Amino acid sequence: MEVQIKAKDYKVSPGLREFIQGRVNKLDRFVGRVTEAKLELTHERPRTGGERLRAQLTIATGRAILRAEEQDADVRRAIDLAVEKMGRRIQRYHSKRVDHGKRPSVAEFTAPPEPVGADGAASGAETAVGVDGDEPDGRYDVVRTKRFALKPMLREEAIDQLELLGHDFFVFLDAEDNQVNVLYRRKDGAYGLIQPAR
């Protein structure tokens, strides 16, 4: 599979390109029809000191998008770790497709909506506070914008995508009611579903 390599604050040498291509090609035997493979390298300087490289590998097939991300001070180690994690994700994806009948339904994970008070706020809702308990200054910056096509899918497929991407939430178009829904992972490990009011 051909890998698109994108680097931020980091120069990718021809030798590193070959290394990346060789490592990602090892995943070919696990993945079916790949429509896109992309590796993003980001050079970071955390507040704790030192330098780290973040490697985020994304593979899109006709049926799913899989993502794995790892960090390390050594770029080759970060890439190896991301490829290893992707291998585990692919295996889990394939086992879920085979074992789809044993999966619990989303209805079991969906919590009832929280009651709304007269002021329009959910009862028990927390007020947003800044660092050290200060009120926020009202300024919030959007640091990244993503655009993607919504394709209709069942809730069970949305759970699979959430797990495969490793995210805490997933936006999807529900195939049953043709509405945009948000599936999210709760702190207790279960799932919640946000739906528009009818």
Short description:
The protein has 198 residues and is α/β, with parallel strands linked by helices.
Please outline the major beta sheet: 4 strands, mixed
Structural class: alpha/beta
Number of strands: 8
Taking all residues together, what is the mean pLDDT?
76
Tell me what you see in this structure.
The chain is of the alpha/beta class. It has helices at residues 14-25, 75-98, 106-109, 155-165, and strands spanning 4-8, 34-44, 52-61, 65-72, 152-153, 169-174, 180-185, 191-194. The protein has a 4-stranded mixed sheet. Helix 1 runs parallel beside helix 2. It starts with a strand and ends with a strand. The model is unreliable at 100-136 (pLDDT under 50).
Describe how the helices and strands are arranged.
Elements lengths: L3 E5 L5 H12 L8 E11 L7 E10 L3 E8 L2 H24 L7 H4 L42 E2 L1 H11 L3 E6 L5 E6 L5 E4 L4
Parallel strand pairs: 1-2, 5-6
Antiparallel strand pairs: 2-3, 3-4, 6-7, 7-8
Helix pairs in contact: 1-2
Q: Which characteristics define this entry?
A:
198 residues; alpha/beta; Double Stranded RNA Binding Domain; SHC Adaptor Protein; 2 domains; 4-stranded mixed sheet; 4 helices; globular
